[in-house]
Amino acid sequence: MKTLLEMPAVRECAAVACSFNDSGCHAPAVTVAAAGAAASCATFVESSVRGGAAGIIGSVGACARTDCVHNTSLACTAPSVQIGPDVTVSDCLTYRTA
Ligand code: SF4
């Protein structure tokens, strides 16, 4: 059994408009959604409130992109992920289909 700290880290996030982004992701667990062709980070939020905790690096909590080669039972098995603008303003750029 793994703890959240062992879930795939968001090693880089270029969605700088997100409130959880402060030179990287600081959300405790992001959710990746299947939004059309995109693997969109559903945790992205623009707010005047600074999100997350400065002392942690974000990780993937759940992922609905079941066609991704890294997806098992709606969880991500990649060593880490990269997030940034692609189809939407904040997509999982590690998303790969077979
Ligand atoms: S790499 Fe695949 S399984 Fe992991 S978060 Fe991105 S889309 Fe989801």
Features:
3-stranded mixed β-sheet, globular, binds iron/sulfur cluster
Structure notes:
- The chain has 98 residues and is mainly β.
- It has one domain.
- The strands form three sheets. A three-stranded mixed sheet has the order 1-7-8, with no helix packed on it. Strands 3-2-4 form a three-stranded mixed sheet, with no helix packed on it.
- The chain binds iron/sulfur cluster (SF4).
- The site of iron/sulfur cluster has 14 residues, from strand 4.
Number of domains: 1
Order of helices and strands: EEEEEEEE
Helix content: under 10%
- What is the straight-line distance between the termini? 27 Å
Which value, in Å, is the CA radius of gyration? 12 Å
Which structural class fits the helix and strand makeup? mainly beta
Largest sheet: 3 strands, mixed
Kindly state the mean pLDDT as a whole number? 94
Estimate what percentage of residues fall within beta strands: 25-35%
Bound molecules: iron/sulfur cluster
- DSSP strand count: 8
Give the strand line-up of the largest sheet.
1-7-8
**Inertia-based shape:** globular
The poorly predicted ranges are: none
So how many helices? 0
Concise summary:
With 98 residues, this protein is an all-beta fold.
